[in-house]
Specification:
Structural class: alpha/beta
Distance between the termini: 37 Å
Shape: elongated
Order of helices and strands: EHEHEHEHHEHHEHHEEEEHHHEHHEEHH
CATH topology of the largest domain: Rossmann fold
Number of helices: 16
CATH superfamily of the largest domain: Crotonobetainyl-coa:carnitine coa-transferase, domain 1
Largest sheet: 6 strands, parallel
Number of strands: 13
Number of domains: 2
CATH architecture of the largest domain: 3-Layer(aba) Sandwich
Oligomer: single chain
């Protein structure tokens, strides 16, 4: 049976990144590249990021590492030793991509900057994923996820209007950098395929985060209004007076929450949806005050906050009597802008995800268990993303790569290990 084709089969990636920046090489591995994750002797710091398998703090059982290390082989190598740098240069000759997230200037100080690697492999692509990029006044600032999210403007857009901003509980800053880093790497790869030229890709996590802010920059530019967290509500930006108009989006239903739009004005889709929603509620004796309301005449610039709140109070009285499944069924049947707010259990059990085979089972022989992973957001007709292997154990592929591929004698590997090189 022929091996299934992949987009990056035959290409090699050296992954020096940490934390969410590891997502970059993970994506390249999903597309078939041979990714070699290079850790310092003793293991990557990312292995200490929880949660952990069965809540057992162990660098070999980090679920964060399990995901970010998927589709990678793993070796240990100390780049701060002369022998370590020489081995890395030998690996560069076999590689097509280098992904790193060190502080700007660190690799250059070791003689392993892009200019140095380019001399060894002229068409090498190095992608550097750092908090603020390789230049600028913030270039050497130290940043955790919460600091990066705050500086990027995203935190301002979450929380309640009368309370301090909050962050999304799941990490964002370095993961967004890793995601955009993969995009930048592939664009550079396409350029290389056309011209034969490698290049240095400079990815700023802050700039990647700013891309998540949607139309907030435009709203500020046009109306001088800073969109900020409104809790379960949306906001129509209006000059003061009368000031921004808040409209609830998340309402409680019988077994959870739904996202619903009750809107109108010049947008025909909103008008038709709101009319159908009110008709459905009227059948059960709810929202009777709005039975003959002309949604096409709804004027957001003139509507008072009190009137808007009253309409949504009526809607809440109705929605609380319905389950998420009932809401979805009616929304699909009558083209109502309403959708359940899924939790993780709902997503994992989704028939849509099952049909598309999104979640994948990965064998972990060292745990004597199979673990379910999120899969790939794309399905291609020719070259398919796929699971190649689970995340590596510390130094798992040292012998395979150093001895069998680079031809370093086993006796020398023992000496290198004793000297802290591998």
């Amino acid at each position: 049976m022929l091996e299934q084709a992949t987009m990056l089969g035959g290409y090699r990636v050296l992954d020096l990144a940490e934390d969410g920046c590891m997502l970059c090489a993970k994506i390249l591995g999903d597309m078939g590249a041979d990714v070699i994750k290079i850790e310092p002797p003793g293991g990557s710091l990312t292995r200490n990021i929880g949660p952990f398998y069965h809540d057992i703090p162990d660098p070999q059982k980090s679920l964060t590492w399990f995901f970010l290390g998927l589709n990678k082989r793993g070796i240990t190598l100390n780049l701060e030793t002369t022998d370590g740098r020489e081995i890395f240069k030998r690996l560069i000759k076999t590689a097509d991509f280098v992904i790193e997230s060190f502080e700007p200037g660190y690799l250059k100080s070791l003689g392993l900057g892009y200019e140095d690697l380019e001399k060894i492999k002229p068409d090498i692509i190095m992608t550097s994923i750092t908090p603020f990029g390789q230049t600028g006044p913030y270039v050497h600032y130290k940043v955790t996820d919460i600091v990066g999210v705050a500086l990027s403007g995203q935190m301002w857009m979450y929380g309640e209007p009368d309370r301090a901003p909050v962050r999304i509980p799941a990490p964002q800053f370095y993961w967004q950098g890793g995601l955009q880093g993969a995009l930048g790497t592939m664009v550079a790869h396409y350029h290389r395929e056309l011209t034969g030229e490698g290049q240095h890709v400079d990815q700023s996590c802050q700039q990647a985060m700013i891309l998540t802010l949607m139309n907030s920059a435009e709203t500020w530019d046009l109306n001088r209004v800073n969109i900020r967290g409104q809790g379960p509500s949306g906001m129509t930006a209006r000059p003061t007076p009368p000031g921004p108009l808040l409209w609830r989006q998340i309402l409680q239903c019988e077994d959870g929450y739904v996202l619903v739009y009750l809107a109108g004005g010049l947008q025909a889709g909103y008008v038709a949806s709101s009319r159908a929603l009110v008709q459905w509620a009227n059948q059960d004796g709810y929202m009777l005050e709005l039975k003959d309301f002309d949604w096409s005449k709804l004027d957001y610039q003139a509507l008072s906050q009190e009137d808007m709140d009253h309409m949504f109070d009526l809607l809440q009285e109705f929605v609380i009597t319905k389950t998420k499944a009932e809401c979805l069924a009616q929304a699909v049947k009558h083209a109502i802008l309403l959708i359940p707010v899924n939790n993780v259990k709902d997503v994992v059990g989704s028939p849509q995800m099952a049909y598309r085979g999104f979640f994948k089972s990965v064998e972990h022989p060292e745990l004597s268990e199979t673990i379910t992973y999120p899969g790939f957001p794309i399905i291609t007709s020719k070259a398919h993303p796929r699971i190649q292997r689970r995340a590596p154990l510390i130094g798992e592929h040292n012998t395979e790569i150093y001895e069998r591929e680079l031809g370093i004698p086993r006796e020398q590997l023992v000496l290198l290990k004793n000297r802290g090189v591998i």
